[in-house]
Structure formats: C-alpha cells, structure tokens
Amino acid sequence: MSRTIFIFFFGILCVVGLSQNEHLKKVYDDYNREYNTLNVPATELSYQANFANIQSKEELEEQEQFVKGYVDVLSKIEVLNLKQEDRILYKHLKYELSHHTQRLALEKEWKTSYKEVPLNGLHDLKNYKDWYTYYVKHFTSVEISPEQVFKMGAEEVKKAQGKISELRIKLAYKDEQSFYADLESARFFSSSKQEILEAFERIDNTVRKNLDKMFEPVMIPEIKAMEWPGADASTPPGIYLSKDENPYKVDVFQFNFSTGRYNLRCMDWLYMHEAIPGHHLQHSYRKSDNGYFYFGNVEGWACYIEDLGESMGLYTDPYKLLGKEEWNLVRSARLVMEVGIHYYGWTFEKAMSYWKENIKGQDQIAEREIKRITRWPGQSLCYKVGALTIQKIIAQKRKEGMSLQQAHTFLLEHSQFPLEALL
Questions:
Q1: What domain range includes position 372?
Q2: Are 165 and 306 found together in one domain?
Q3: Is the pTM of this model over 0.90?
Q4: Residue of 268, 262, 256, 156 lying closest to 206 (CA atoms)
C-alpha cells in the first residue's frame, strides 16, 4: 500500500467508526512496519560514523515525505479520547516524528553544503548548535537544551562533591590530601579474580533477599560476573550482556580487570547498575520487543537505582557509598565537559583543567573520559539526565496513587519507550 493510499484509507476508517484507540494502534503499527522498509541507518555512538552514513538526497526526500504523511495522520487523532496506555503510544510516535523531522533537516542541509567532518567535536560545524541539540535529544530521549544540561551538570557536581566531603569528615580524615592518599592504599583493591567473583556473588545474594522492599515480585534469571575479555585502559568499568547477546549461554555482566587490580569501592554500585536492579532486572521485563532502544531510559534506569543501595542491603561500608559518589561525580562532570566541548567550544586542555579542578583522585581515567565524550556526543548525558527524569516520572506516578513498587514496575514495563513519552 502506498503512503498516499494509506492516509486516504485512514480517513475511511474514521468514517466507518473505529475508536480513536483502534485508529492509533493501527497507525502506530503501520508506521513501524513502513519505517523499517526505508532502511534508515541506526545512529552510531560516533558522530563521525553518523556523518559517513548519511544517505543520498533522494533517500532523505523519501523519508521526509514519509514523516510528513504521518505527522498529518497523527494530527487527526483526538488525544483526550485515548486510554492511558494508548497515550504513551501517541506520545512515542509524536516524539519519533519530531526527532526525524529534526534529523532530516540537518542531514539535507549537510548534503547540500558538505564540508569535512570535524575531528574534535561538533563545535567546528557551522550549525553546531542544531547538531548538538539533536544529539542531546537522541541520547537522553528528553526535550532538554544544552544550556539546561550544562546547568544540571554544574549543580550535580556540587552535590556529589558535598557528599564526598561529608563522607571524608565522617571517616575522620583531617584533610583532603591524606584522604585521597589513603584511597590508593592496597586495602581498597584486590588482585584476586576469585575474590572479586565471590564478592559479586555475595552482593547478588544480598540484593535478591532485599528486592521486595522496593520492587514487586518477579522471577529474575541467574546472572554471572566475569572479567571483561580484552578490556584495556579505554574500556568502561563494566557492561551487561544478556544471554542473547553473548556466547556464554547465560546472562552476564563483565568488569574491567585490565590493570590486574580492582577497586573494591566500586563493587556495590557496579553490580546494581549492570545486574539487579539495573540492566538485568530491566531486561527480564522485556517480554515483547517494539524494536526501539533509548539510552536515556536504559542507562538512566541503571543510574537511578544506584541510589537504592542501602534499601538493597548494600553500602553498609561507608567506603562503598564513597565509591558510588566518586563515580557519580564523574558522570555529573561529564555533563559540563561534554556541553563545554560540543556547544561552547572547549578544548581538550580546558576540559582536562575542569576535571583536575573538580574531580580529585581519578586523574588516571581523565583522558579516557574526555576522549569518550568528544567522540560520542550525547551518550554520556543519558545517565544523569535519564536518572533525574526517572525521578520525576516516579514522583508523578506516586501523585497518581501508585506505590513506589508500582511506579518501578511501570518504568520497567516501559523501558523501550523514550522518557519523554512517559512524562
């Protein structure tokens, strides 16, 4: 069926009396099916790869007509007559159409005024503000401006620094110098892979025993910790791989042991982020696949639940809580530095200066993180922006009468929707 005929057919359906909810579901399903026939390249983490993947002018024009057609169709649906779940579908489709409209305008302009792809971030583009705003939306799945992200990051940096300072005082260190010097002591690290695996198993047992304090009952498959094969200094702290994504035939999360020395302060928050109640719990709720993946929802959830550690029986040692706040500080500072690089034109040196001024005791990962946010605009924002948005959604659901457990279930059951559609 051609897109013109489909739009005409939609008008006939309205006449013969299908409900607005039935109309919307058909539009939603047809949109997804037809969009897949366009073979639009998936957005890569690397902006340089994305510029290389921009399609021909003819293909972009076809996509543009497709999007305009569905914008017109969606405008004929009366939102107030939709059920709550169908309103989420409506908001999802509206988000997608808006996002593709933004993308197509940028890509069509690029095809007509092609220049060399910049090497050190988006700021060297003539219309860098528009491009970076697009990346912010893509990776957070939230309508938020770069200026708002920058302000959010600065505020979160101060909060994290304050919590670290409180913990330092609580642990009776007389000054920052002695504090950070002691954090490099051998007692905070392990070179025994077996010791690390056994510790992760104990954490798994503890979390499973306490899960019902914050979540409704659900069967969660076994998950195994393992060393990240081939990890190096540029590899992140950990990664989750479901059994469908790895050759091990079991759900796993991998930890970076490339230096042969593992920071024990990081174990509680990393387990929660990658396993339960983070990525692994979220994945266990995906009984159906709508074909979408939103970083803001997925990484935002895993970041959000790190604050639930004490309810899960973790962070009993203040140094484990410190480990969480140390990484929280990195995530928060990345918001400031990334917007600085791509939107305000910061150099690598200025970003490094910001790091050294605001993040103490973690200089060994500074270059890795700054290069990451330079190569992957938008991706590092999804953690903190996503987590803070999820807090808003939970507060909203609590006002509507849900318990905290029910609000968590709502989010887990809608993990493949943009956060904007859940607000």
A1: 147-422
A2: yes
A3: yes
A4: 268
